[in-house]
Amino acid sequence: MRFFVIGFGQAGGKILDMFVENEKMRGSKSRIKWLAVNTARTDLIGLKHVPMKDRLLIGQTVVKGHGVGTDNKLGAKITQDEIETILSAIDERGTHDLDAFLIIAGLGGGTGSGGAPVLAKHLKELYSEPVYAFGILPAPEEGKLYSLNAARSMVSLMKYVDNLILFDNGAWKYEGLSLRESFEKINDEIVRRIALLSRAGEPLEENMVGEMVVDSSEVINTLKGGGISSIGYATSLAEEKKDFRYSRRRKRSLRQLREIGP
Questions:
Q1: Which fold has domain 3-260?
Q2: Is a pLDDT exceeding 50 seen at residue 238?
Q3: Which residues of 40-61 are buried (b: 16+ CB within 10 A; e: fewer)?
């Protein structure tokens, strides 16, 4: 599935960075495009795998590259003020062969929480492709302000996106670890789910059958109609068994056919 993935804010940028790393490790040749958007310069500089040309700093005249903290109203205002810059950056990377847009954002902070709904609104107005948001819910330990921001962001996002896919940090907190220590493992679980979507109908190499039986049209049909979704992920080991009797019978059969002739 050919996404244009926008990592918005600190959490969104980190997850996008891990997703790009995952795609490179797999040797994927899928035509996915991406862009990391943030008001904090240090967060953008800290990314390791998103190319520098695909990082966009906004709000420099207002917050001087220091971010908006947890002020999602300011995050929304900065995004609205610089929406043309963001849309131009997306257009420059090409949108003609996309299946959908995917905005990734932490819903408890400021930049992603406030900016993601604004971007979703404008993408819906400009493009016919579906716009999805992957929102990360804050854990209760992160505080009431984070929960309030998430509630506001969810209400706004659901007005504009074709589907809001949620991931709950609190539910995925690892036992015995602090929330901060859990973040890396939690983000890895998120990347697994995004990668699962991106592989729908897409071959690992050109001129090959898609890697997954499910294709992009089935994903779009499943997610259409709005609302909130969640993506499951599971793995299992497959035991390989060889049937030598079948192999011998097949060889004899082919030999007999050659002896009989046409």
A1: Rossmann fold (3.40.50)
A2: yes
A3: bbebbeebeebeeebbbbbbee
